[in-house]
């Protein structure tokens, strides 16, 4: 499998699985086990000392999760992956796998609501400071970087306004200052965009969205490009002896595994001692999603573009954002980074304003009114009163959030039915 240069549609179905030799099961089995037998005490000791890799306990590793991790790493062209209990945990444990008290990182401000709150309200309680900068404002990024800066964080397509990040621009600054570039690529699953190809070092996905694809589970993954050099002494967590791991220095003492220092630390410190593990049952659900991801990502994008084109022409619609839409302010970046489609998200506003937006959202047929994206079903929400309501007025503004913004996650229903529902809803707008 690994020897051939298979295309992404093939990898989505086969990468990471070796047929289990006892049962020869064709589908990936769900390994519902808490622990794994050691062959003898020496084998157990070698596993604990990281002298040999193998299964110990399912908080740290599980064969079902292992297939998903390898498959997603293959799709994103990374060196290794690690699944976690949610996308939110994937973000949090990535940051705290690099930064400690007193450290800072620079982030784009147009973030997923939960991530914004984590960076703005939770990390500061732990002495970690996020410096927010407007997306693609590289002067602001340069100005925000100082001696305490340890990482740069962006999302590929911002939330809720769909600005496309210029990943190569960020990667150039990250490289110049020797900082890892962390990219949350949830809105652009790997068949649409692979940030590592543009210089990202660490890629995060919420599996709960398009990768799972059916609104049936919560999970996250972190993918490591395996190329960042953690020996720079400013990354103390990699260069100082780790008390939790008998004095191991992750950047120095891993031998041939040292290119995977980041992801091994995430597993041995994050999962092992902090415990945000993905259940194997959930991993199995996500494996079903991955198999059809290339087809689904293409159809989500195709449907969303048609919806955006329909809305753009509608006399009651004030504005529409969709990166691939002709004339969109992200169109040039979308052409570069998203030639296979910009995914399923469309946002727009009504000329009649924000009260009309709430009424529209309450009355539309077919669309589900809920706080999620990336389902096979079409979804709708008014972020200012829900997902982004915790944000201060100032933060709402800096995230580009107008009070009247309506967010659509376009599903896999027939596009004429989706547009028909929007059309009926718009007819009712006064
Ligand atoms: C949903 C989402 C998350 C959080 O993922 P969960 O699995 O819901 O915890 C993070 N980032 C983005 C861009 C998301 O859409």
Give a description of the structure.
Strands 1-7-6-5-4-2-3 form a 7-stranded mixed beta sheet, sandwiched between helices. A 5-stranded mixed beta sheet has the order 8-9-12-11-10. It is globular and about 75 Å long. The protein has 2 domains: 8-281, Type I PLP-dependent aspartate aminotransferase-like (Major domain) (Aspartate Aminotransferase, domain 2); 294-427, Aspartate Aminotransferase, domain 1 (Alpha-Beta Complex). The mean pLDDT is 94. By secondary structure, it is an alpha/beta fold. Helix content is 35%, strand content 13%. Helix 1 packs antiparallel against helix 3. The structure holds pyridoxal-5'-phosphate. The site of pyridoxal-5'-phosphate has 18 residues, from helix 4 and helix 5.
Describe the protein's topology.
Layout lengths: L7 H7 L26 H8 L14 H13 L4 E5 L2 H9 L8 E5 L4 H10 L6 E5 L4 H7 L4 E7 L11 H10 L4 E4 L17 E5 L13 E5 L11 H4 L21 H14 L5 H34 L3 E5 L9 H7 L7 E6 L3 H10 L4 E2 L9 E3 L11 H6 L7 E4 L5 H13 L3
Parallel strand pairs: 2-3, 2-4, 4-5, 5-6, 10-11
Antiparallel strand pairs: 1-7, 6-7, 8-9, 9-12, 11-12
Helix pairs in contact: 1-3, 1-10, 3-10
